[in-house]
Amino acid sequence: MKRIASLVFISILTLSIALPMVSAYDLGVTIEQQIITISISDSGLAVEENIKVNNNEYENVTSLRFWIQQDAPDVEILAVESGTYLSSIIIGSNIRECNLSKHNLSINPKDTLDIRLTYTLPTDTKHFVKTILYDTTSLSITYEEDELYRGEHNTESNSVRILLHRPTETLVNIVYIIIIFLLVVILIASTLLLMRKQRTKAKKSIVESEETLTTKKALLLSLLKDVEKKHRSKDISDETYNKLKEEYKQQAVDVMKKLEDIKK
Fold first, then answer.
1. Sheet holding 76-79, edge to edge
2. Which of 54, 84, 88, 149 could form a Cys-Cys staple with 141, CB 3.0–4.6 A?
């Protein structure tokens, strides 16, 4: 009996020496860098996450968790260096867990592992959400080559929520705004130019009318003097004189009234 107990103890000791620091947990995991790229595809929003995982503890890490928005059904998890696709199980809301040891993988102490996640979100997704499961040194989110977020030292359990805009729609809107602005500028410039021409024309018309009336007034007064002289010299009859005098006098009065109206 003592021999059996001794053999069991020796076996356990041997295994502990042969397989030091093997753990089924992800204690000590931190993310050095997480780069998330989102692009528009025919099937929806294609998401790719490139993650550099660090093991800062003294035991091997054999399990990793990943938070995937909306529990996307087409998640692929790739260990980049080995080219191994990792299977996962859903252990909570939007959380998937990978057992690295199932694929003969682990992260040694002070070592790193590059992971690539790919999945698709619905086309009508308005916000991209990422809950941080491990302390993350650097996190960036790019949408259609436009960087929407860059954060440093995000701690575990923090959540990032980013509004996704449509670059094509934004570009079209900007073009429309520019076109409308140019049309408004052209319309205002045309209106001001037309008003300026009308003012110039009106002023010119007023000047010409005043000059014409002044000349006409001088002519009528001169005609009245001539008629007066001819009447005194008996060159015209009294009847003709009275008729011409009244006619020229009335015209002169009308002209002077018009001149007064213009000056007002």
1. 84-86, 76-79, 112-121, 44-55, 29-41, 136-143, 146-154
2. 149
